[in-house]
Amino acid sequence: MKHVVITIARGFGSGGKAIGVALSEQLGIPCYEKEILRMASDKSGISQALFEETDEKLKRSFLKRVIGSTPSNYTVEPSDKKFIHDNNLFNIQRKIIEELANTESCIIVGKCADYVLENRKNVIKVYVDAPMSSCIRSIKERMGVGDMEAIRIINKTDKYRSDYYKYYTGGRDWKNPIYYDICLNSGTLGRKKCIEIIKELYEERKAK
Q: What is the reported pTM?
């Protein structure tokens, strides 16, 4: 297969991004996460700060307005007052993700990429998570915080990622395994083993 894309959805503290970065180095393909925000900003002319403000999260005021509504699948012109509306910011990122899948092999972390690219045969959809104890340990080491603060950060981050995913996918449960090709427990398998498993899937798909 000419282009193979790996999408990685991840629980906070599970090491999903670190796994993506390590895969990128081993496979020699780019890994996109925050880079997509920069690319979307460059493409649209909208400040990157606005994309960062809604990076896998719904603004509180926006969330109150949209519960139960369905986002549009199109982007609007700069002259339209809805140009910097959250839906439009998402759809600009959606187009970036689709363009990447059309042109190169890569890894995309988060951004509802598994949903955006769900019907493509060249996509491997991965979900990475770990037990809370493992996530707490990871966040404590990474952020230098105590147990209670680590738990608060994990719960808060997973909550806003879940709300974001549910809204932009029309109500899907972010952690439902049926939406992924493979779900990995980095706490029991270890991140190194997760990398090996995903790498093997990539090489098999690439050979088709």
A: 0.88
